[in-house]
Amino acid sequence: IASQPLRGLTVLVTAGPTQEPLDPVRYLTNHSTGKMGYAIAEAAAELGAKVTLVSGPVSFEPPQGVDVVRVTTAEDMFEAVSEAFAAADITVMAAAVGDFRVERIAQQKIKKDGRDSITLNLVSNPDILAWAGGRKRDDGSQILCGFAMETEHLIANAAKKLAAKHCDMLVANNLREEGAGFATDTNIVTVLTPGTSDPKTPQIERWNKMDKTVLAKRLMLRLAAM
Ligand code: C5P
């Protein structure tokens, strides 16, 4: 049916922040609220898809009719995505995944002990989107969409990610722009897709400021058409 272009398809969405524990009482995280990813999961379900939402800790209720896998750390998120990815026809990674975690989580609360400074030794987390990009089905029947949030050189960085992570679409949003980014109801995005003649030169479309729910539906319709 025209109103349900995703009927019969499986959609996997990541959303929200991750939390990387330092000790039993503290963690590293970011300002993601999950709003964009939850709107995408909801739009996909409304358009008829079977939806799995892998979500970091957020304060929203999951959308109706969506399967939610709750995770805390980037490694947990990676595990959940690696179980669901092969079955997904369309994957949208909107989560703000922590790039680093502490090498060793302290078993007890870290104490000041009269010190003026301490050093946290951080190691990198798996790049879930890059992993997925490397394991797409050979027949091109899996569509992968990533997000990018930058504070500078937005388009250049997004173009690099589109290619390096083998995405079919990369949605770039600039943290510095009014009405875009974390915790807002609206977003302003630039949508990059691989160029048709020269894959190194992406096609770039700037979309006007719109509500995240409207944006989510447009994105899903665009991905459905792909
Ligand atoms: O490279 P960067 O982190 O800016 O890329 C952002 C995109 O990659 C987002 O789609 C995000 O969900 C995804 N990502 C990921 N795993 C990471 C880091 C980012 O899936 N460890």
UniProtKB/TrEMBL annotation:
Region annotation Phosphopantothenate--cysteine ligase: where it falls in the sequence: 11-226
Functional summary from the UniProt entry: Catalyzes two sequential steps in the biosynthesis of coenzyme A. In the first step cysteine is conjugated to 4'-phosphopantothenate to form 4-phosphopantothenoylcysteine. In the second step the latter compound is decarboxylated to form 4'-phosphopantotheine.
Lineage: Bacteria, Bacillati, Actinomycetota, Actinomycetes, Bifidobacteriales
Top-level taxonomic group: Bacteria
Organism expressing this protein natively: Bifidobacterium callitrichos
Domain DNA/pantothenate metabolism flavoprotein C-terminal: 6-224
Bilayer-crossing regions: none
Membership in a protein family: In the C-terminal section; belongs to the PPC synthetase family.
Shown residues in whole-protein numbering: 222 to 447 of 454
Residues engaged in binding CTP: 99, 109, 126-129, 147, 161, 165
Protein name: Coenzyme A biosynthesis bifunctional protein CoaBC
Gene from which the chain derives: coaBC
